[in-house]
Amino acid sequence: xxxxxxLICDLETGVCGVAGEEEMEIIDLxxxxxxxxxxxxxxxxxxxxxALEPTLRRFEKQYGNYFNFHTVMxxxxxxxxxxxxxxxxxxxxxxxxxxxxxxxxxxxxxxxxGSLMVDNPVQxxxxxxxxxxxxxxxxxxxxxxxxxxxxxxxxxxxxxxIAEKSIMIDxxxxxxxxxxxxxxxxxxxxxxxxxxxxxxxxGKLGARGFPTIILLxxxxxxxxxxxxxxxxxxxxxxxxxxxxxxxxxxxQPSLSDLLATEKxxxxxxxxxxxxxxxxxxxxxxxxxxxxxxxEVNEVLGEKYxxxx
Length: 308
Known about the structure:
Blueprint: E1 9-10, E2 15-16, E3 36-42, H1 47-63, E4 67-73, H2 94-108, H3 116-119, H4 126-138, H5 141-157, H6 165-174, H7 179-186, H8 189-205, E5 212-216, E6 222-226, H9 231-241, H10 255-262, E7 264-266, H11 267-274, H12 281-288, E8 294-299, E9 302-307
Parallel strand pairs: 3-4
Antiparallel strand pairs: 1-2, 3-5, 5-6, 7-9, 8-9
Helix pairs in contact: 1-2, 1-11, 4-5, 4-7, 4-8, 6-7
């Protein structure tokens, strides 16, 4: 048992409290330098990236003390042409995407409507990608990632065309930034150049599919994980890059803190973060959150919480 009686003082050492301390020692209270870089190569309209969000968030929250996180735009769709875009997956025209997206949404339980790609299809993922880069340039990675999240919510769950200028402006405004100024700059040549830099980096990293997670050490050696995978895959990859060291997870944030940060969370995201069964969600939420601080809504059969 730990002795909590710190009123006992040692006359010889002059110490009141824990005995046995060195008379003088060098200390460093700075957090250890993160020696691992994690690159997340993605795209605003990547459905499997949307499906990965619950797992990726938990990985970053619990193991982020080991690495620096970088999001890289990969350029999934420049434009629809006359020929097939992805014949291997039966994607020849925008309407073909709708069914594929719905399958991903049903399998992952990250809701995807998909009917937009029949009625008012996204013609290119480059415009919202450029907006991401301009926000990153003028603000920071965190604010740019918030824009990416709001864009995916708008596209997949709420069926909005996130490549339309008015929608992009509204989304940027919603995160507290001048949407018109950002979107106008994204349309300039400088916006194209910023995006091209990400494309070059994605190519250098060898990323050809989305999502791709690449973990690199100081010697630029590491692990590449392609596709939406379970949490243990990313933890195992991190361990390999740490030369076999088993990374220790930090405690998950409280649900109240997580919702305050994220603003909106789908049921699946809460279940993954806290190892819950779907049937346990309501009781957990009622226990963790104060009534009146949130509201529960539903879209496409999936519940989600919104911070009030």
